[in-house]
């Protein structure tokens, strides 16, 4: 059955390396391998969650995917076509189909533009519609995200954080895209507002047949919204699985540690649960050693882990893990 | 009898605390009459959304609010001593020694031009009157206590050489340097990753036990409170909406706001269901007037809620809630 599902986005061995300028005393350039050889796909109509700690490369992956960054190597197949090396002009039709919702609703909206202008901008760039037609679309989309027609003339500072995020979502949806990257789209919002925005994103997905890449560090929210989840650690994908399966049966020691670190909002469960707190912190992404990147913090590390970098391999239906234990 | 025992054990007693920000003629009351106590040896959690006044409240207790803010009323009694009548200088002597605080952002709380050790040494010399050499040794011990590996070299490093989690540990070491009776932690793990958050919470719990101090933990994360707090205050728009032991707040919340807050978060455990958000957004403190501050967003609000401010109703010796419905609102389930 899964074979018949259409892949909207597919990444093959994607790499994004950032060179660090060396000082004139030190010879040679070092690189940060922010995304290192990552392959996965996203089916049409699904929500793919991407989780990991800060610095693991999840945001870079999102931004490389929609060509805000140029990929160092690898393929980005969007609807079957490799867009990794297209010029800006060739990219234009694809840009129209993928949009992004940013983390910070305070800095991602231009304070000098009113709501109408903000939402109109992508329409002006990507469509040939007349001003009147565009206005109709804007009114329509504002209603969809729970804002009013009267809000069109207002400026971002007149809105609360949650409402600003709605404007950002309206901007992303105005040109009817297929694919939306939500980069920590709800992290800056209050708990009660997060639930409003999540419910709205779910409704819009159904209504407009959207595909989401949901990048976030809030693991309980990711589980809630995602169909499948990928876990990243230091630029590598270490586990991919259906979301329930990942939470019920995490395989990679890092996924296990990450999940057991989530504080459970239930005092009895929280106090009874055996928390496996992993010691140590994310090592520097610059001085990367050979072998598995998690081995310095892994309680199960063996000698092979220092030598060979484990490949992501399938262990179950739709469940992939990169670990020598499996 | 239970009440008697609790009164004897009170470390901090705050009554009718009111703090307002003044801007020319306009006044914005951010903390609007708060009563609470901190027991000896407990970890008290204060939860609330942004703008609920939780940070301003604890800063009012310490006397570190901005110049345009003023504590207008209230009693603050720490271990029998009234803090509200103290001069700035006297308050300064209390900070660090009696009450210490750790802040949310470990990236900006340390002076980038000073070594980690110097932050501690300065404190030990000034507050505890140590000699410099002695203080350096004590600083190394403190860094070891908060779990920083190889403290002998770390003591001579600058803040930029530390990661976020390690900086937060340095701040905790600073807070504990003078054996305070009360530690106030304002969102101490919000800027950290979950795995590091788990480490820091574990550390706080351990240090609280070992040093027998009281901790006030401010957070917006209900998971964090459930993990380490024994008692909880739920704040909204500058008031305490509900107060109770952790199990009372999580398993039998009486206030519709508490209930709604618990319903709006997704669970990692259990079934996936559609989230139940709270409609609308928090009220502006400038326009708020009479009535229950949550009335606009409450599913159970009736006429009276918009006109009169409800009184507290007690449900046990530890649980009380500010709602006319006396718990019925919260009982009406799903």
UniProtKB/TrEMBL annotation, chain A:
Residues 9-259 form the ABC transporter domain. Keywords: ATP-binding, Nucleotide-binding, Transport. It comes from the Bacteria. PROSITE patterns: ABC_TRANSPORTER_1, ABC_TRANSPORTER_2. The keyword Chaperone does not apply. The keyword Signal does not apply. InterPro entries: AAA+_ATPase, ABC_transp_ATP-bind, ABC_transporter-like_ATP-bd, ABC_transporter-like_CS, Oligopep_ABC_C, P-loop_NTPase. Gene3D superfamilies: P-loop containing nucleotide triphosphate hydrolases. It holds the Pfam family oligo_HPY. GO terms for molecular function: ATP binding. SUPFAM superfamilies: P-loop containing nucleoside triphosphate hydrolases (SSF52540). Belongs to the ABC transporter superfamily. This is Oligopeptide transport ATP-binding protein OppF. It comes from Neobacillus rhizosphaerae.
From TrEMBL, chain B:
It is a peripheral membrane protein. Residues 12-262 form the ABC transporter domain. Signal peptide: none annotated. The gene is oppD_5. It is found in: Cell membrane. Belongs to the ABC transporter superfamily. Keywords: ATP-binding, Cell membrane, Membrane, Nucleotide-binding, Transport. InterPro entries: AAA+_ATPase (IPR003593), ABC_Ni/Peptide_Import (IPR050388), ABC_transporter-like_ATP-bd (IPR003439), ABC_transporter-like_CS (IPR017871), Oligopep_ABC_C (IPR013563), P-loop_NTPase (IPR027417). CDD domains: ABC_NikE_OppD_transporters. NCBIfam families: oligo_HPY. The keyword Oxidoreductase does not apply. GO terms for molecular function: ATP binding. Its main location: membrane. The keyword Plastid does not apply. This is Oligopeptide transport ATP-binding protein OppD. It comes from Neobacillus rhizosphaerae. PROSITE patterns: ABC_TRANSPORTER_1 (PS00211), ABC_TRANSPORTER_2 (PS50893).
């Amino acid at each position: 059955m899964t074979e018949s599902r259409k892949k909207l986005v597919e990444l093959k061995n994607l790499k994004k390396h950032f060179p660090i300028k060396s000082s004139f005393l030190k010879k040679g350039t070092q690189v940060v391998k922010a995304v290192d050889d990552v392959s996965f796909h996203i089916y049409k109509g699904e929500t793919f969650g991407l989780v990991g700690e800060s610095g693991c490369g999840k945001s870079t992956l999102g931004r490389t995917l929609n060509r805000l960054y140029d990929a160092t190597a690898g393929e980005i197949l969007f609807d079957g076509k490799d867009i990794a090396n297209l010029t800006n002009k060739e990219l234009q039709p694809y840009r129209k189909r993928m949009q992004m919702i940013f983390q910070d609703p305070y800095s991602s909206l231009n304070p000098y533009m009113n709501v109408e202008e903000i939402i109109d901008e992508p329409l002006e760039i990507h469509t040939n519609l007349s001003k009147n037609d565009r206005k109709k679309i804007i009114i329509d989309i504002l209603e969809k995200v729970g804002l009013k027609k009267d809000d069109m003339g207002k400026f971002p500072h007149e809105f609360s954080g949650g409402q600003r995020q709605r404007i950002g979502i309206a901007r992303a949806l105005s040109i009817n895209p297929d694919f939306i990257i939500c980069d920590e789209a709800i992290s800056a919002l209050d708990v009660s507002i997060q639930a409003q925005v999540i419910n709205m994103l779910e409704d819009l997905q159904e209504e407009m047949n959207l595909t989401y890449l949901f990048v976030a560090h809030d693991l309980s929210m990711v589980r809630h919204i995602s169909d499948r989840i990928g876990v990243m650690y230091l630029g590598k994908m270490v586990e991919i699985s259906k979301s329930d399966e990942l939470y019920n049966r995490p395989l990679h020691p890092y996924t296990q540690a990450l999940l057991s670190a989530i504080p459970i909002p239930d005092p009895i469960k929280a106090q009874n649960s055996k928390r496996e707190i992993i010691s140590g912190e994310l090592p520097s992404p610059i001085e990367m050693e050979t072998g598995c990147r998690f081995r310095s913090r892994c309680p199960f590390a063996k000698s092979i882990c220092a030598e060979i970098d484990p490949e992501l391999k399938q262990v179950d239906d739709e469940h992939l893990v990169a670990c020598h234990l499996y | 009898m239970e009440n008697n025992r609790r009164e004897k054990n009170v470390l901090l007693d705050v009554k009718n605390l009111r703090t307002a920000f003044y801007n020319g003629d306009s006044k914005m009351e951010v903390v609007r009459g708060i009563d609470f106590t901190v027991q000896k040896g407990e970890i008290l959690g204060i939860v609330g959304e942004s703008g609920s006044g939780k940070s301003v409240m604890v800063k009012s207790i310490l006397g570190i609010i901005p110049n345009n803010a003023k504590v207008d009323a209230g009693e603050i009694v720490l271990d029998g001593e009234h803090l509200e009548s103290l001069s700035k200088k006297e308050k300064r002597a209390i900070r660090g020694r009696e009450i210490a605080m750790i802040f949310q952002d470990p990236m900006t709380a340390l002076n980038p031009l000073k070594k980690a050790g110097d932050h501690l040494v300065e404190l030990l010399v000034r507050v505890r009157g140590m000699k410099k050499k002695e203080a350096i040794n004590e600083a190394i011990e403190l860094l070891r206590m908060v779990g920083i590996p190889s403290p002998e070299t770390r003591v001579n490093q600058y803040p930029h050489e530390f990661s976020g989690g390690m900086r937060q540990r340095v701040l905790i070491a600073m807070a504990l340097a003078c054996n305070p009776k009360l530690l106030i932690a304002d969102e101490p793990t919000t800027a950290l990753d979950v795995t590091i958050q788990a480490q820091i919470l574990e550390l706080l719990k351990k240090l609280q036990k070992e040093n027998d101090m009281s901790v006030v933990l401010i957070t917006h994360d209900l998971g964090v409170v459930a993990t380490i707090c024994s008692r909880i205050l739920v704040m909204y728009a500058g008031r305490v909406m509900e107060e109770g032991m952790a199990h009372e707040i999580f398993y039998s919340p009486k206030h519709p706001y508490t209930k709604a807050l618990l319903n709006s978060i997704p669970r990692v455990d259990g079934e996936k269901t559609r989230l139940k958000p709270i409609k609308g957004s928090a009220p502006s403190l400038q326009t708020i007037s009479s009535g229950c501050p949550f009335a606009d967003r409450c599913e159970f609000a009736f006429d009276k809620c918009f006109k009169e401010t409800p009184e507290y109703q007690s449900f046990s010796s530890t649980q009380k809630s500010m709602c006319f419905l006396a718990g019925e609102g919260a009982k009406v389930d799903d």
